[in-house]
Amino acid sequence: MSLEFLFASGIGVLAAGGFWLLLRARTFDVILGLTLLSYAVNLFLFAAGRLAPGRTPLLKDGVAPLLANYSDPLPQALVLTAIVISMAMTAVLLVMAVQARVANGSDHIDGREPRA
Amino acid sequence: MSGMASHIAVLPVIVPLLAGATLVVLHRSPLAFRRALSLLATLVLGLVVLGLGLAVEHQGLVVYQLGNWPSFAGIVLLADRLAVLMLGLLVPLALASQLFASGGDDARGAHFHALFQFQLMGLCGAFLTHDLFNLFVFFEVLLAASYGLLLHGQGGERLRQGLHYVVLNLVASALFLVAVGVLYSVLGTLNLAELSARIVVLPEAQRSLVEAGGWLLLIVFALKAALLPLYFWLPRTYASASAPAAILFAIMTKLGIYAVIRVYGLLFGPDAGALAGFVQPLLFWAGAGTATLAALGALASPTLRGLLGYLVVGSAGVLFMAIGLGTDVGLAAGLYYLIHSTLAAAAFFLLGDWVRRHRDGGDALGRVAAMARPAWLGGFFVLLAMAAAGLPPFGGFLGKSLLLAYAEPTGATVVLWGVVLGTSLLNLLALARAGSRLFWQAPAVATARNAAAHPPSPALGERVAMLMLVFGLIVTTVMPSDLARYVAGSAAQLSEPATYREAVLGRDPLPTTVPR
């Protein structure tokens, strides 16, 4: 199996798990789902610069500064930003979920238990 | 330009950032001080926007490269007439929101003004950025602040709607990043002008991937702007927000529309070959569906503020139809309508808050309830209902009639006429129903034990805010030719992506082929 196949399957599994959890109606599951989804997205963004094993984004003496010789640094910078943002958003969401649980007495995403 | 003047394009981001940071640090200082500081910052922002507007008039496009990095490596901000128009709309709305909040809404938590300034920063940045990833970042900044503002002075209902709103937007952010990844992997850049240049010479084999990226981005923008299958979150969220937050939300849906105009106009503009305008037919039909369903929603809405939420959705639908026409004049008419509908919605949200306070049963339309009915309240209601439904003499009427007048060359005339006129009638009926329920069916004499029978009259700040917005509506009504000329200029500027490429890339030309 090629690296690309493994990588793509990993993203697919993470995204599928994330969406499945997102569609569940409890806040904790939804938050976990969003976290998994953001992992998938971050890996996808990383792959946008192409998978380049053994190559670094750091310039070396004697190697021409072409993309063919290095891995693309920009997606890595994007991923870093996206990780920070998604972590902060998860924190916000966690606080809201706890408060909603306290205020509404239910961890259902609609703030109340569905009628049986 | 030289010295400070050349930095004017970045100041709309810097001013609210500094003000917000200062307000976070000083959150224990007296409320009056925080109010004054925040108001001062917004006034300074207004001056900056004025300066930027003059610079844009003078130069055409104002390009700003942060840290003087060349555009392929650095962050580029670009101000054109459309960006200035949106900023110019943002400033009075922000002032009105702050003044209204000074009536007491900002006292319910320590960080109202800091959140407010951060939201302004996100909005200004999103209007000015010329880079897809920074658009994402500014979206996140303004969304993070809007979560805070939505939950400010929270209650169970606000938390519930807030949770839905946050989760939806986080999913949209994930999609945004996927779209960014797809476009970057094919085109190797995220700078809008650069993307546009590379799409022009895009080989046929890669077209479908770029198109997929384009559709993904459209889902994100459509969610922000509340386009047809993605608007269900909006009415309830807006109905549960406090009035000052709702004013800013009124311009946040317009940000989605702005992003569609900006990104699709530049990337998939007239010279994009097979990809030119590929989303426009969908935008037109989705807009028509949105406007129709929103008008029905307004008619069936159980609360006044829910009704207002549907009016915001409906105006977004009309705007998408204008964009979907794919003509300069259609877009210009749409922009004209955008100014008016945003002001009208904002003013109406303030009025909705007053009604809620004056009435025994809040703003629920389902039951008859006692209400103190000073003449000015009913007067404003009639005035704003006329403005929101697009009756003459207000600007909304003019915007819609311009749109109808310009629809002819495209062949979708029947649908456009039918939807615009039909939804206007339905909106008028919905507002008439709400007005008669609120003002005419209430018991004539409110009982003395009702707290709502003797509400305190609105604070000075609230009254000034309302008068400001109504003044704005009057300006759009009495100065139609100047405004129409400005929006026509904006649309003409947008129709030439080549000038943007030249302005952004001209100083450091890159090969326009994909470097892979």
Give the % helix of chain B: over 70%
Number of strands of chain B: 2
The strand line-up of the biggest sheet of chain B is 1-2
Q: Give the mean pLDDT of chain A.
A: 87
How much of the sequence lies in strands of chain B comes to under 5%
Q: Helical region count of chain B?
A: 19
User: What general form of chain B does the structure show?
Assistant: globular
Note the topology.
The complex is a heterodimer of chains A (116) and B (516).
Chain A: H1 3-22, H2 27-47, H3 73-104
Helix pairs in contact in A: 1-2, 2-3
Chain B: H1 11-25, H2 31-59, E1 62-65, E2 76-79, H3 81-101, H4 112-128, H5 132-151, H6 156-187, H7 192-200, H8 207-225, H9 234-240, H10 243-267, H11 280-300, H12 304-324, H13 328-358, H14 375-389, H15 395-406, H16 413-440, H17 460-478, H18 480-494, H19 497-505
Antiparallel strand pairs in B: 1-2
Helix pairs in contact in B: 1-2, 1-4, 2-3, 2-4, 3-4, 3-10, 3-13, 3-17, 4-5, 5-6, 5-10, 6-8, 6-9, 7-19, 8-10, 9-12, 10-12, 10-13, 11-12, 11-16, 12-13, 12-16, 13-14, 13-15, 13-17, 13-18, 14-16
How would you summarize what this structure contains?
The complex is a heterodimer of chains A (116) and B (516). By secondary structure, chain A is mostly helical. Chain A is 63% helix and 0% strand.
Word description of this protein:
The complex is a heterodimer of chains A (116) and B (516). With 116 residues, chain A is an all-alpha fold. Chain A has three helices and no strands. Chain A has helices at 3-22, 27-47, 73-104. In chain A, helix 1 (3-22) packs antiparallel against helix 2 (27-47) and helix 2 packs antiparallel against helix 3 (73-104). The model of chain A has no long low-confidence stretch (mean pLDDT 87). Chain B is an all-alpha fold. In chain B, 71% of the residues lie in helices and 2% in strands. Chain B has helices spanning 11-25, 31-59, 81-101, 112-128, 132-151, 156-187, 192-200, 207-225, 234-240, 243-267, 280-300, 304-324, 328-358, 375-389, 395-406, 413-440, 460-478, 480-494, 497-505; strands at 62-65, 76-79. Chain B has a two-stranded antiparallel ribbon. In chain B, helix 13 (328-358) packs across helix 18. Chain B is globular, with a radius of gyration of 22 Å. Chain A binds chain B through residues 22, 27, 30, 34, 37-38, 40-42, 44-45, 47-50, 67, 74-75, 78, 81-82, 85-86, 88-89, 92-93, 96-97, 99-100, 103-104, 109-111, and chain B through 133, 137, 140, 144, 147, 151, 154-157, 159-160, 162-164, 166-167, 170-171, 173-174, 177-178, 180-182, 184-185, 190, 515-516.
